[in-house]
Design brief:
Layout lengths: L5 H23 L14 E3 L6 E3 L6 E3 L6 E3 L6
Antiparallel strand pairs: 1-2, 3-4
């Protein structure tokens, strides 16, 4: 028979419990497909440096992050 002290038994059970939880965490994780839907209202086009950037603020005028010029939102006609 295997002789274990109380502290060894607690350590063994703790390690086994943590190992099982870690294994279940690794196998249970699912890589969710991320669906990136971007509203066209947030896409800005700089009229000075022709840089396309995203600004999620609800503003009519935006500052270009590349050249720091001010841009006014225009309605895209497709």
């Amino acid at each position: 028979m295997i002789n274990l002290d109380f502290s060894q038994a607690i350590a063994l059970y703790s390690i086994l419990y943590i190992g099982i939880v870690f294994f279940l965490w690794l196998t249970g994780r699912k890589q969710k497909e991320k669906d990136f839907n971007l509203d066209p209202a947030y896409i800005w086009y700089c009229s000075v440096c022709t840089y396309t950037y995203i600004n999620t603020k609800e503003e009519e005028i935006s500052v270009c992050p590349r050249c720091a010029s001010f841009n006014k939102k225009t309605v895209d006609r497709q």
